[in-house]
TrEMBL record:
UniProt xrefs under InterPro entries: Glyas_Bleomycin-R_OHBP_Dase, Glyas_Fos-R_dOase_dom, VOC_core
Biological source species: Rhodococcus wratislaviensis (Tsukamurella wratislaviensis)
The protein, known as: VOC domain-containing protein
Every VOC domain range: 3-127
Any Pfam family: Glyoxalase
Alphabetical list of SUPFAM superfamilies matching this protein: Glyoxalase/Bleomycin resistance protein/Dihydroxybiphenyl dioxygenase
Annotated transmembrane regions: none
Gene3D superfamilies, per the entry: 2,3-Dihydroxybiphenyl 1,2-Dioxygenase, domain 1
Length: 134
């Protein structure tokens, strides 16, 4: 069975969030978007639902994590090269995000991370396919 993954994240400003991630090259699925959320497409089986906080609260019990004080998750996306890692993270920082964590360089694996406009941590990782065991 092939599974799909939908990650749900609270956001403060839908327009600013769409502009930020759109500027990083992500696309949005209009079918699952409205004035309170958007479905950011990662690939054909994975989407990130970005919901304004009031809409996000419809799906949870308790409060929303204060990302200025805690990290609720590490979201890691792959890149095709070291250069793509640097390009994506540098673009995120230039677009209003902030650097997060330390550079990870293990030779066969390279990664950096950023916080988006709402403080969610996004790791961007490249791994040499030849180094992955068969």
């Amino acid at each position: 069975m092939s599974r799909m993954l939908f990650v749900n994240l609270p956001i403060k400003n839908l327009d600013a969030t769409k502009q930020f991630f759109g500027g990083l090259g992500f696309e949005f699925n209009a079918t699952f978007s409205d004035d309170s959320c958007t479905a950011m497409v990662i690939n054909e089986s994975t989407s990130v639902m970005l919901l304004v906080e009031s809409r996000f609260k419809d799906f949870i019990e308790g409060g929303i994590c204060d990302t200025s004080k805690a990290v609720e998750a590490l979201l890691c996306i792959s890149a095709d090269s070291r250069e793509e890692v640097d390009s994506l993270v540098d673009k995120a920082i230039a677009s209003g995000g902030s650097a997060w964590g330390k550079l990870q360089d293990e030779g066969f694996m390279y990664g950096r991370a950023f916080r988006d406009l709402d403080g969610h941590v996004w790791e961007v990782m490249w791994m040499d396919p030849a180094a992955v065991p068969a």
